[in-house]
Amino acid sequence: MSQRVTRRSVLGQIGAAVAGVVSAAAAKTAKAAVQRVFVSSGAPKGYDPTQHKWLMCIDANKCIGCGLCAEACKRENHVPQGPFYRTWIERYIIPKPKPGSGDTRGEVQVDSPEGGMHGFPEPPMPKDEIEQSFFVPKLCNLCHHSPCTQVCPVGATFDAPDGVVLIDPKYCIGCGFCIQACPYGCRFLSPVTKTAEKCTLCYHRITRGLKPACVEVCPTQARIFGDALHPVPDDPVQDFVRRNQIFTLKPQLGTEPRVLYANIDKEVR
């Protein structure tokens, strides 16, 4: 289930980030702590995570379900073959209500064949029976209060000051606690490394000034990526927030996701 987030609240959060999310003393402490672990993050030497606040925005109206994002993610991040995905696409089909049922809509159907990597087959029902159909890209929700970090017994999963939740494979023991704790189903245990994996926003790319692979290849710009601490002229993230009703997934859990959605139905979970 999703919930509307007001433009004022999101813009306020972005403004707060620009003004300074943490004090100088706290930032110094956070930087020192993270630098002890960042040896395995893929970030270049000299990257300062306290000077960035990464955000991902997704416009479901623009997603065409082509699967290029999931395919690019597999290649870029060497995701194992098989049913393992750092990002994937789900198709939501909402049928029209049956005549005389008194319902406002039919039972929602959700599918994601091969993570949507190779597109989607024709809907399983005639088009004239469909009330609404749309695609929703999924990935790590970059939770501000991340359940996965809370349950990791060795600190392998941690919150970076730049807003990305990371996993240090050198510390991960493959216990699977974080996988069970993630309410968004965004993690998996790699059959190759026997450690937990998930989306990192292509951390090895964004810390070098590049976009995540999924954003780079999206032909319709359904995915929007930016840095709240360093907005650019006509910043796409702030423009996205101003123009749309903003939603996050499962807000009742209090995780405060940093992945923002527009044009999704309440059935998206």
How would you describe this structure to a colleague?
The protein is an alpha+beta fold and 269 residues long. It has one domain (2-262): 2-Layer Sandwich (Alpha-Beta Plaits), CATH 3.30.70.20. It has 8 helices and 12 strands. A 5-stranded mixed beta sheet has the order 1-11-12-2-10. The chain has a 3-stranded antiparallel beta sheet with strand order 4-3-5, with no helix packed on it. A two-stranded antiparallel sheet has the order 6-7. Mean pLDDT is 88; it is low at 16-39.
Task: Please specify the SSE layout and strand pairing.
Blueprint: E1 2-5, H1 7-20, H2 24-35, E2 54-59, H3 68-76, E3 88-95, E4 109-111, E5 130-138, H4 147-151, E6 157-159, E7 165-167, H5 177-181, E8 188-189, E9 196-197, H6 203-206, H7 213-217, E10 223-227, H8 236-243, E11 246-249, E12 259-262
Parallel strand pairs: 2-12
Antiparallel strand pairs: 1-11, 2-10, 3-4, 3-5, 6-7, 8-9, 11-12
- Low-confidence runs: 16-39
Mean pLDDT: 88
**Which CATH class?**
Alpha Beta
CATH architecture: 2-Layer Sandwich
Question: What letter string, H or E per element, gives the SSE order?
Answer: EHHEHEEEHEEHEEHHEHEE
Helix content: 10-25%
Q: Using DSSP, what is the number of strands?
A: 12
Radius of gyration: 19 Å
Strand order of the largest sheet: 1-11-12-2-10
Shape: globular
Give me the number of helical elements: 8
Report the sheet-strand fraction: 15-25%
Reported for the largest beta sheet, the result is: 5 strands, mixed
Query: Would you tell me the structural class of the helices and strands?
Result: alpha+beta
Q: Provide the domain count.
A: 1
For the termini, the CA-CA separation is 5 Å
> What is the third-level CATH name, the topology?
Alpha-Beta Plaits
